[in-house]
Structure formats: C-alpha cells, structure tokens
Amino acid sequence: MRSGDALVAWCAVAVSAGRECTYYCPDEATARRCIEALAESDKRLRERPEELMLWDWQSTYFETELGNPNGGGTVILGVAWYDAEFFEDRREAWFGAMHQRIYQGLGIPLDDIEVTHWKLVA
Fold first, then answer.
1. Is the N or C terminus of the chain more exposed, i.e. has fewer CB atoms within 10 Å?
2. Is the model's pLDDT at 3 over the cut of 50?
3. How far apart are CA 94 and CA 117, in angstroms?
C-alpha cells in the first residue's frame, strides 16, 4: 500500500451535499481491513438500481502517518449525496449501531473517526 493510492468513483449526477470521513488506523493491518471493507461496500453500492443511487463513495485514499513504524495512517472517505432530503435523514448514519459494529470489527474506535458534512448552497 502506498501513500496516495486511490480508489475513485465518479458519478454524473449533481451533488447536493457531502461528507468526509477519516479513519485513523494505527497499523497497516487495520488500514487494509478498513480499505477492504470500503471496497466491498462500494461493490454492493454499485449493484443498486439507478433510482436508489442517492449517495455514493466519491473517493477513498490512504495517507501514511510519518514516523509510524507499523505502517499506520489515515483512510479518508469522501461521500457524495445526490438528494438533499435523503442526506438530512441519513447524515448521522455513520454513528448508528450497524456502523459502530463495523468499526469495532475493523478495530477502529469511535475516537479515531472524524466526520465532516457539507451542503451545496445554491
């Protein structure tokens, strides 16, 4: 895994809101589990019918933590939301019980996750 490796997906639909999630991973194994889980989730998202494409992964990349002998760093996930109402209803889903179980299984405590939301102002 190299710093700056990217998995990027683009969609031609207008974005109404976004989210950036950062997941601090203390070592390479945790970072790999996180990236693999996001890739699997992205695969499931791609199987949705077009009318359910209300959000999408915008980009995912890894930034190496300088000086970390265990290969740790931060996984950064950008999420694009295509429906403002759906965004408002689901913007805190990252904190729900299902996601907390996922983070626990990956070995990423909630204290090591940061989420920033933004909305497009017309």
1. C
2. no
3. 11
